[in-house]
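Q: Given only this backbone (203 positions), what sequence would you predict?
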């Protein structure tokens, strides 16, 4: 094999190696995007969804206690329930996905603090007219509903992001296959062309 042919061989092999390396890096990047998206969906969506569900249930329990004037709840259960509600609100704040959710969670935290203070006043809890207390509960429930809607929209966005990454990965895999086929043909041409030239010279 002549020096020229060796150089051509070397160039062809290096080119194939660089192509495979580039496509593998692209595939790796897409895989990382999918992995991050799935992890984010779990951490910021499923975990927060569970927290919102429990928060909603506990607020509903509190609302029933207000409507029924349940003295046992406010004297024996409210303190532990409020502590758990604070934990859930903090968890939602930690897993907040954007500015809108952070704003709503801050508003929710403020409304819950106001509600806790109102609960500490017996004249409000056991009053015949509980309009002020119910209004604050309504504000809390509105915040929870808005937060749940934001989490649902973010889940849809993350799902689309994962789908785009998968589509990109599949596309580059197909391009890689076609390029390898073309390169294989090119390498054959590079290798066989000098051989034919030599045969013509010998004749």
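A: Predicted residues:
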């Amino acid at each position: 094999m002549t020096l020229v042919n060796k150089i051509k061989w070397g160039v062809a092999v290096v080119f194939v190696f660089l192509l495979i390396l580039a496509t593998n890096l692209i595939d790796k990047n897409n895989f990382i995007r999918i992995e991050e998206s799935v992890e984010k969906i779990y951490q910021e969506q499923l975990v927060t969804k569970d927290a919102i569900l429990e928060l909603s249930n506990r607020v509903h329990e509190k609302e029933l206690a207000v409507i029924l004037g349940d003295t046992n709840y406010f004297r024996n259960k409210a303190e532990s329930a409020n502590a758990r509600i604070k934990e859930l609100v903090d968890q939602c704040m930690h897993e907040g996905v954007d500015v809108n959710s952070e704003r709503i969670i801050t508003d929710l935290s403020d409304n819950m603090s106001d509600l806790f203070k109102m609960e500490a006043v017996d004249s409000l809890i056991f009053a015949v007219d509980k309009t002020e207390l119910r209004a604050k509960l309504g504000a809390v429930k509105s915040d929870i509903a808005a937060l749940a809607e934001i989490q649902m929209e973010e889940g849809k966005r993350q799902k689309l992001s994962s789908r785009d990454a998968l589509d990109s990965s599949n596309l580059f895999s197909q391009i890689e296959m076609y390029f390898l086929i073309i390169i294989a043909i090119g390498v054959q041409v590079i290798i066989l062309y000098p051989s034919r030239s030599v045969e013509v010279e010998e004749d």
